Amino acid sequence: MRRATIYRLLVVAAAIGLLEVLCLTGVIDKITMQAPHLIVRDLFRMLVSGRLNGAIMKTLTNTLLALGLALSVGIVVGAILHRYRALRDTLDPLFATYYAVPIFAFYPFFLVVFGLGDLPQILIAFMLGVVAVIVNTLNGLDRVPTVLLKTARIMRLSSMDTALRMTLPAAAPYILTGIKLAVAYAFIGVIGSEFIMSRGGIGYEISFAYTSFDNATMYPLIVLILLASITINAGLSRWEERLLARRGLR
Amino acid sequence: MTASMNASRWSGLRNASVLIAALLVLWQVLYWWVGDVALASPLATFRYTERLVTGETFGMHAYDTLRAFTIAFTLSVVIGLAVGFWLGFAKLAGDVLEPMVVAVYAIPKLTLYPILLLAFGLGLSAKVAFGVLHGVIPIILFTLTAVRNTKPILIKTGKVHKLSPGQTVRWILFPAAVPEIFTGLRVGFSLTLIGSLLAEMFASQRGLGYLLMTGIGLHNVELIMSVTLLIIVFAAGVSTLLLHIDHRLHRRT
């Protein structure tokens, strides 16, 4: 496993090195992409100057709000649907096709109803993320071993205790999978809405920089989002592995 | 067996009709609540859709989307299966690259669209690239897992029969992995479609996604709703069909 980690770092380093060489030799021209070391330098300068801190904070806050909403609603709805089989069977085709539908098409509707503020963006991000959480919560609850529930009954746990001490921990690794997807979807929702129409935020700044050929702003911002989502994801994956290892599943 | 299958098919049909009816009612109620500014009623949308579909320009946009999607999905399947089988077979390569593929699965790929635009320009190749970027990952991951989880006894049986590596793939690994691979293709279908549509929305001058953006820009509610409806019907129809085949493949094993 350690050997694989070393090789992985080498692959990443080689890819960045290749980009660097291609950019410096002019195979990839300056208008298309800047060399990786310049992107890092620009990102550093941008963060130190604080020029875009407002936009960054706005996007991160909205993403976090949407994520929190998607998680709480998704897990509760998942738990309810798990109880009511008929309702779940009815909604199944909706879940199966949900992610082939461009949710952004609902953005103008939200704009008209709620105005050009943060709420429409949060709602779009919420709509994108919530179904991933529901589906994975259902999946996790399906896989709770019956023996745990029987044990809970023998111990005469109340239904609240059963949920908190047995069902939730047993389903946690699967719910985490949903959370990881919801993180990505929350970012996509907020940034995509900012691309389409907004008054600020990282997505707005990226598309503004794109239309004015300002690569020194565009690439650092893209890299910043990628870094943020990969960091959050790696953290969640590590947590997931710990949970699975504790259960002897990995 | 047949009786129970028929029963499940009927209940599936009933579920789908109940869902469609419920969504239509919800739509109508929402329309009454928010009014003409933000929503078109179901009836008005159906009428507009009819006019749109029979209109002149629609064929061109639909053809453009379908062409980009077909190319993107074909590429996703070919690349996804090839990489998936390779990473499933080669232990070290799989261990090294799988977490990276998973990481790419979870990044918000929409943020990459300006880069793709700069690299490919406005048009077909950017759409295809964006579709493949979305669709290829689930196909790789499902294929990889399926190949890795093939029961060792099957592979041993192949060795006993002295099958060549090519024959092992053809007669043992592929049939054993088909149900899982198909699930990957089903997920890949949805994501390729959404990928090419997103590319059209943000980076194109033709296609259904572009039509959608035009509707958003002009605030033409009927146009937005009609295009969304058409996309939903197409996506839901194909997804339901694929889901049906998926369930049958999984039941067989």
Task: Using brief descriptors, characterize the structure shown.
A: 250 residues; MetI-like fold; 10 helices; globular; B: 253 residues; mainly alpha
Short description:
The complex is a heterodimer of chains A (250) and B (253). By secondary structure, chain A is mainly α.
Give the SSE map.
The complex is a heterodimer of chains A (250) and B (253).
Chain A: H1 2-24, H2 36-49, H3 53-83, H4 85-98, H5 107-114, H6 119-142, H7 146-154, H8 159-196, H9 202-211, H10 215-246
Chain B: H1 2-34, H2 42-54, H3 58-89, H4 91-105, H5 113-120, H6 124-148, H7 152-160, H8 165-203, H9 208-218, H10 221-252
Q: Identify the CATH architecture of chain A.
A: Orthogonal Bundle
Give the rounded overall mean pLDDT of chain B: 85
Would you identify the regions of chain B where 5 or more consecutive residues have pLDDT less than 50? none
CATH class of chain B: Mainly Alpha
Number of strands of chain A: 0
Domain module count of chain A: 1
Mean pLDDT level of chain A: 86
Could you give me the name of the CATH homologous superfamily of chain B? MetI-like
Gross morphology of chain A: globular
* Largest β-sheet summary of chain A: none
Order of helices and strands of chain A: HHHHHHHHHH
Report the C-alpha radius of gyration of chain B, rounded.
22 Å
Find the CATH superfamily of chain A.
MetI-like
Strand portion of chain A: under 5%
What name is given to the CATH topology of chain B? MetI-like fold
Hey, which two chains have the biggest interface? A-B, 56 and 59 residues
